[in-house]
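hey
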């Protein structure tokens, strides 16, 4: 089967199922696993985003939402050259990936029979279901079951430790996970659930809901014990770079998380922005930040840093 993935998360799923050799097209943002970088790219950014500030990117996103035009577009010639049997796409976010309508419109013009599968998870269980859906469409059901069972086993292990710690009197710390920095956005979709499964209490985000703009005054009001910065699409180095260029919000030094040294930058792109297999790594990462005594060393190497 010839597969085109228009989502970094779908690319990760395809590789996890052992189907990397069947990928004939990916997006310009598909960078994991490293082998994905050698696959022909069939999308391009409408704007020059390299080095852009979070405020500038936010302005572009708002413009995109207002005009209903995605930040990215298909390279129709490259897609036609890939000659896919299956295209993996999404409808969840109109600005962070090529629009579903555009994909369908282009797919109808391609030669041969092309199936378009839209992946729409908004929860951890939904992500597991998406992995199995890709397995079903690619005749890799057994591999998908193995991948999901491994993820479930890791989740059960975290649940057992979190439950045991809670029974022993460990109180879930109050957490604010921030998905954008300027302006700040409260986390949404599966991220509040990740926080809960890791043993914390997310203060601003709603499980299954959208990420929503908030203010640093609102963060100050809830006064989290742990503050986790996970800007959508930013790796750890970019998160730290962007944070260092921004002025500290009013009352920053008064936040409990700041006073207690529990403000963390993370690789949001890898572990929180993409609804794929590494969502479980994100849960383990958060578990270590929330309860290092119980989860010391379980997070992926280089996935987070303490900041001030």
């Amino acid at each position: 089967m010839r597969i085109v993935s228009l989502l970094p998360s779908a690319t990760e799923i395809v590789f996890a199922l052992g189907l990397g050799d069947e990928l004939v097209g990916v997006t310009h943002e598909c960078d994991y696993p490293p082998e994905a970088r050698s696959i022909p790219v069939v999308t391009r950014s409408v704007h020059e985003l390299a080095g852009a500030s979070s405020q500038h990117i936010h302005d572009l996103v708002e413009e995109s939402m207002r005009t209903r035009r995605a930040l990215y577009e298909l390279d129709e010639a490259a897609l036609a050259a890939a000659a896919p049997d299956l295209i993996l796409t999404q409808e969840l976010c109109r600005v962070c990936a090529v629009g579903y309508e555009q994909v369908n419109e282009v797919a109808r013009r391609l030669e041969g029979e092309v199936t378009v599968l839209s992946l729409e998870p908004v929860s951890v269980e939904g992500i597991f279901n998406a992995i199995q859906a890709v397995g079903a469409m690619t005749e890799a059901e057994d591999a998908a079951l193995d991948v999901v069972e491994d993820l479930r086993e890791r989740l059960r292990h975290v649940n057992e430790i979190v439950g045991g710690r809670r029974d022993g009197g460990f109180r879930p710390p109050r957490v604010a996970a921030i998905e954008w920095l300027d302006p700040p956005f409260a986390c949404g979709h599966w991220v509040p659930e990740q926080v809960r499964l890791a043993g914390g209490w997310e203060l601003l985000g709603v499980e299954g809901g959208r990420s929503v703009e908030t203010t640093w005054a609102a963060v100050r009001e809830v006064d989290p014990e742990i503050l986790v910065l996970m800007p959508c699409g930013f790796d750890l180095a970019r998160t730290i770079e962007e944070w260092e260029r921004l002025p500290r919000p009013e009352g920053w030094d008064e936040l409990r998380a700041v006073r207690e040294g529990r403000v963390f930058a993370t690789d949001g792109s890898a572990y929180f922005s993409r609804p794929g297999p590494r969502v479980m790594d994100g849960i383990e990462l958060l578990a270590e930040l929330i309860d290092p005594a119980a989860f010391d060393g379980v997070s992926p190497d280089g996935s987070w840093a303490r900041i001030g």
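The mean pLDDT is 91. The longest strand covers residues 174-181.
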